[in-house]
Amino acid sequence: MEKYLLIIFLLIFTICNAQMYERKKNPLVSFNGSYSMEGFYLSPGLTYMLPNKINKLVDNIDVVPRGRLAYVIEAGAYKLFEKGGNIFNYMDYGFSYKKLSGSEIDSINNKSIFKQRYLSANFNINNIWQISNKKFIQSSIGSNLDFKLFEKGSPEPKNTERLILSFHIKFGYGFKVQKKFFIIPTIESPFLTLKKWEQGKSSYGVFNSRYRPLIFKIRFIWLKTPGKGDCPPVLTNPEDKARYERNYMQ
Questions:
Q1: DSSP secondary-structure letter at 81?
Q2: Contact at 8 Å (CB) between 72 and 97?
Q3: Single pTM value for the model
Q4: Which domains, from first to last, does the chain contain?
Q5: How far apart are CA 248 and CA 21, in angstroms?
Q6: What angle do CA 76, 78, 79 make, to 5 degrees?
Q7: How far is CA 61 from the centre of its chain?
């Protein structure tokens, strides 16, 4: 699964990178100093623990994992890279509160449920491919450090850790709704987990099964008008100006 996630990311990323230098008649954002290079975002959403589809046999009893929907809320800030960046165009960082939940059912109808709640620190670098005047595709790679606040289960899971460090990929399809307001629905999943270490697997082992976290978010992002003390960039160098014009937001 990890191999396929990386292949999908590389394919989409290559397409986006090949197209990012196309000139756009109507830019998503102007770099003439009308907006600050920094701002904030809010991302509510849902989580789903996608179960391993292979049924397991535990003590000669069939065990079937099942996923459960839960929720996530994230808030943070973004920063556009100087001169629009080259491959990646902006970064974002924030904190989220999320719940992950799943279950197991065996052949004699015993059911085990886990409910985990985490406080997470998130970081992403993002590429934007503008496909129309007000629509774009976003591909991102990032990391999340999750601290487990508490866990409930019946029976209580014994094989999970309090601290998890993962690297994830994320894809989104964005809309420019207003002059300074964007909406970006995204889907995110880890491709490498360093802690808890399970031979680099990106799925999570709970009870007798494995689950892949899928995180669906809707990002609301606002552009910020520069304050009196902010100095917008002055493009005096023709090469700098050309780079702005080639930028993903131009």
A1: P
A2: yes
A3: 0.79
A4: 2-23+45-246 (2.40.160)
A5: 7
A6: 150
A7: 37
Contact 147, 122 (CB under 8 A): no
Per-residue pLDDT of the chain (250 residues; tens, 9 = 90+): 555 555 555 565 555 555 544 444 576 766 666 778 899 999 999 999 999 866 666 667 788 899 999 999 999 999 988 766 678 889 999 999 999 999 988 878 888 899 999 999 999 999 989 888 889 999 999 999 999 998 887 777 766 778 999 999 999 999 999 888 999 999 999 999 887 777 778 888 888 888 999 999 999 999 888 766 555 555 555 555 555 454 444 4
Task: Output phi, psi for 173, to 5 deg.
Answer: -125, 110
Decide: 65 and 57 in contact? Cβ < 8 Å: no
Q: Beta partners for 222? A: 40, 181
Phi, psi of 237 (to 5 degrees): -85, 125
Q: What is the DSSP letter of 60?
A: T
